[in-house]
Specification:
heterodimer; A: alpha/beta; fumarase; five-stranded mixed barrel; globular; B: alpha/beta; 2 domains; four-stranded mixed sheet; 9 helices; about 25% strand
């Protein structure tokens, strides 16, 4: 296991090229939250040629919907949701400038191909450690689709959010590699 | 006569208000305080884990449970669909309202006042119902004059990796084991491993699923092995096979893919062999109370 690297958004092409499957990263900067319904809306807006409520260019999307913010807190508990549900929409978003995604679980071949073609990166977070992850969130701003409640798009300012590179711009996949390596080691 | 004496327990009146407040308390607690058996199982698995990354993930999971408990924060942002198993003693008279409505109100209050996420929506429009209802309520009538309520907030990620299948009787025990291992293997990192694997065998389609869910309620202590010798053996074998998959904590590779495999079984139709696998993430939440 490598020492975590500190990475700042926005993700430039140079940074993305330097990220490899298996790299531990402490991510800082601005990320959008968006999950199921928000993805459907962004996708449909792109299909209709409408302007999006967020700037996708060089952006990072965190597949997450936090618990409600209690009084005197910045945010409730927050963590990654399973990513494959966004797979249908993701290549379209990547074509339009999305550079980073944070979620959990494997992606479709189409998403992996889009990540490679358009030079993007998919980070995996650890699911189910949402009280801990909340500590990395320094600011929350509601950006779009307020009526979706937890599924609304928010802009989070995060500091040292621990993630791992799962799919890199060279087409590598950490989940596959980790499982294969573990089994090889045991033989 | 002894039997008459036993059945002559007086009817006990239980007010709906008590049910509502119990349900509310159970869901807030379940979402913020991880049960000691789950903590113990996680600690044990930390010792078993051979991958350094896997160990680190397990340590984070334990640290998170501690922070959530101390700060009264939800352990996971997915505070779940509210699932309840309710056993109503036949000598109970529920007063002051309707049982189901009282339970739903408890769920509503827990999710509003406990700052829990509302994760329930219309299946087609995907519009959020706004208060985390309706709950999934399984009610049984049992002997006695008490009400037992088990509250189980169930996350969507692990539920999505669950499945049921009507096998042929010819598939037998081997077919069941193959199906279970396949489901866990296919789910990879998706359901937040290490997982608890609930297996329901027999009954009908829906009964196999309910058995699989009930299997997830069994405490995770080694002395709590299945009392059915055949099933205990199958659990042991499945546990070993699943933990050979290498998925590991958070799917980052390692020894610990499952914390436990629990099986419940009942007889089925001569034509059928129903099997259901219900996957539970490591944030295995359930609390119960007897009123």
């Amino acid at each position: 296991m490598t020492k975590p690297r500190q990475i700042q958004t926005l993700l430039t092409d140079e940074v993305i090229a330097s990220l490899h499957a298996g790299d531990m990263v402490l991510l800082s900067g601005e990320v959008y939250t968006a999950r199921d319904v928000a993805h459907r809306r962004l996708y449909d807006a792109l299909e209709r040629g409408e302007k999006l409520p967020i700037d996708l260019k060089t952006s990072v999307i965190f597949y997450a919907a936090p618990t409600p913010t209690p009084p005197r807190k910045i945010i409730g508990s927050i963590g990654p949701t399973t990513s494959y549900r966004m797979d249908f929409f993701t290549p379209r978003l990547i074509e339009n400038g999305l550079k980073g995604m944070i979620g959990k679980g494997m992606r479709s071949p189409e998403v992996v191909a889009a990540i490679q073609k358009y030079k993007a990166v998919y980070f995996g977070g650890i699911g189910g450690i949402a009280a801990l992850t909340a500590r990395c969130v320094k600011k929350v701003e509601l950006v779009a689709y307020e009526e979706l409640g937890p599924e609304a798009i928010r802009m989070l300012t995060v500091k040292n959010l621990p993630v791992v590179v799962i799919n890199d711009s060279e087409g590598k996949d950490l989940y596959e590699e980790a499982q294969r390596n573990w089994q090889l080691r045991r033989q | 006569m002894v039997t008459e004496k036993k059945t002559k327990k007086p009817i006990r009146r239980i007010n709906c208000k008590r049910i509502t407040s119990a349900v509310k308390k159970l869901f807030i607690e379940a979402n913020t305080v991880l049960e000691t058996d789950v903590i113990a199982a996680l600690k044990q698995s930390c010792e078993r884990e051979e991958s350094i990354t896997g160990k680190q993930v397990l340590e984070k999971i334990l640290e998170n449970a501690d922070i959530a408990c101390k700060n009264k924060m939800p352990i996971c942002q997915d505070t779940g669909l509210a699932i309840l198993f309710v056993e109503v003693g036949q000598d109970v008279h529920i007063v002051g309202g309707d049982l189901r409505a009282a339970i739903e109100e408890g769920v509503r209050q827990a999710y509003a006042e406990g700052y829990l996420r509302k994760s329930v929506c219309d299946p087609l429009s995907r519009e959020n119902t706004g208060d985390n209802t309706p709950a999934i309520i399984h009610i049984d009538i049992v002997a006695g004059n008490q009400i037992k309520i088990i509250a189980m907030p169930k996350g969507g990620g692990s539920e999505n990796m669950s499945a049921a299948q009507m096998l042929t009787p010819a598939a037998g025990a081997e077919g069941i084991k193959k199906f279970v291992v396949e489901k866990v293997a296919q789910s990879g990192a998706n359901p937040c491993p290490p997982v608890i694997v609930g297996v329901g065998i027999g009954g009908s389609l829906e009964q196999a699923c309910i058995l699989a869910k009930k299997a997830l309620l069994r405490p995770l202590v080694s002395e709590n092995n299945n009392t059915n010798e055949r099933l205990a053996q199958m659990e042991k074998e499945l546990f070993a096979r699943i933990n050979e998959l290498g998925i590991g904590p958070a799917g980052l590779g390692g020894r610990v893919t499952a914390l436990a495999v629990n099986i419940e079984m009942m007889p089925c139709h001569i034509a059928s062999l129903p099997v259901a696998v219900n996957i539970q993430c490591h944030v295995a939440r359930h609390k119960e109370i007897k009123i």
